[in-house]
UniProtKB/TrEMBL annotation:
Keywords: Activator, DNA-binding, Transcription, Transcription regulation
Coiled-coil parts of chain: none
Name of this protein: DNA-binding transcriptional LysR family regulator
GO molecular function, one term: DNA-binding transcription factor activity
Originating organism: Nocardia tenerifensis
GO cellular component: protein-DNA complex
Pfam family, one: HTH_1
Classification via InterPro entries: LysR_HTH_N (IPR000847), LysR_subst-bd (IPR005119), WH-like_DNA-bd_sf (IPR036388), WH_DNA-bd_sf (IPR036390)
Length: 265
């Protein structure tokens, strides 16, 4: 004990104990250090308990970003499953397009991103880890049943986000034309309303039609054309336990493709 006290006094540059007869007592400096030591030990104990709770999934927070069609269909089911399995986990959600979501992921502003890619898209940048959740069919949205892209070489088109626009260009390229974009909207409700009003035609994924389907538009599935849906994380594995739990909930509850709802007569 005397050896440890001597080392501590040498390290602090202060006399910490005073001998009284056969005993010792703390000097004012020693009492100050003892008070701080008790405070530090208390904080260490608290941190240890908090860490154990988080590792054990009793508490924690996961920040997830996804675009509107995914956020309104796939995420709620996964959130409900997560809440049942781990009620202490908090899931914070952000409505973002894939490019924005991946930027947030790289900057550490979120922990997980749900993104889509089309078949001809270039590979995502190094450092991203993608878990494939399924493929979402793409539909031509028009006022004609059993329609086709080739019927709209000269039609006005409604474009969307940057990645949506790349997807549309790739689809039309297969039919040897470039779409003439007359309007832009990222909102599935607005897009369908514009089509219903005769302002143009558009493409939408099946998930968007599951979230919202107008009765006065027609959705024609484009054979063999899909969006690939991924859960993206960043950095070296393994993921934190809470992120792993969210990924497991997404994998368990995601079923793609699923039929789009039939509009009421």
């Amino acid at each position: 004990m005397s050896h440890h006290l001597a080392r501590l006094e040498a390290a602090t540059g202060a006399k910490l104990v005073q001998r009284i007869g056969r005993g010792i007592r703390l000097t004012p400096e020693g009492q100050l250090l003892a008070n701080r030591a008790a405070e530090i030990l208390g904080r260490v104990d608290a941190a240890t308990s908090e860490l154990a709770a988080q590792v054990g999934l009793q508490t924690g927070r996961v920040r997830l970003a996804a675009n509107a069609s995914t956020l309104s269909t796939l995420v709620p089911k996964a959130a409900a499953t997560l809440a049942q399995a781990h009620p202490g986990l908090q899931l914070s959600l952000f409505d973002r397009h894939p490019v924005e979501a991946l930027e947030m992921l790289r900057h550490g502003e979120i922990d997980l991103a749900l993104v889509f890619r089309h078949a001809e898209a270039p590979a995502e940048e190094e450092g991203l880890r993608l878990e494939h959740l399924g493929d979402d069919p793409i539909y031509l949205i028009s006022r004609q049943p059993d329609d086709s892209l080739a019927n709209h070489r000269h039609s006005a088109w409604i474009g969307g986000c940057h990645r949506c626009q790349d997807e549309l260009n790739a689809l039309c390229l297969h039919e040897n034309f470039t779409p003439c974009i007359a309007s832009y909207s990222d909102d599935m409700v607005v897009v369908q309303s514009l089509v219903a009003a005769g302002a143009g035609v558009a493409t939408l994924p099946g998930l968007a039609l599951r979230a919202h389907r107008r009765p006065d538009i027609h959705a024609t599935e484009l054979p063999g054309r899909h969006r690939h849906i991924y859960a993206a994380t960043y950095g070296d594995p393994p993921d934190p336990p809470a992120v792993t739990a969210v990924l497991a909930a997404l994998t368990e509850t995601t079923t793609l493709p699923t039929p789009i709802p039939t509009p009421p007569a």
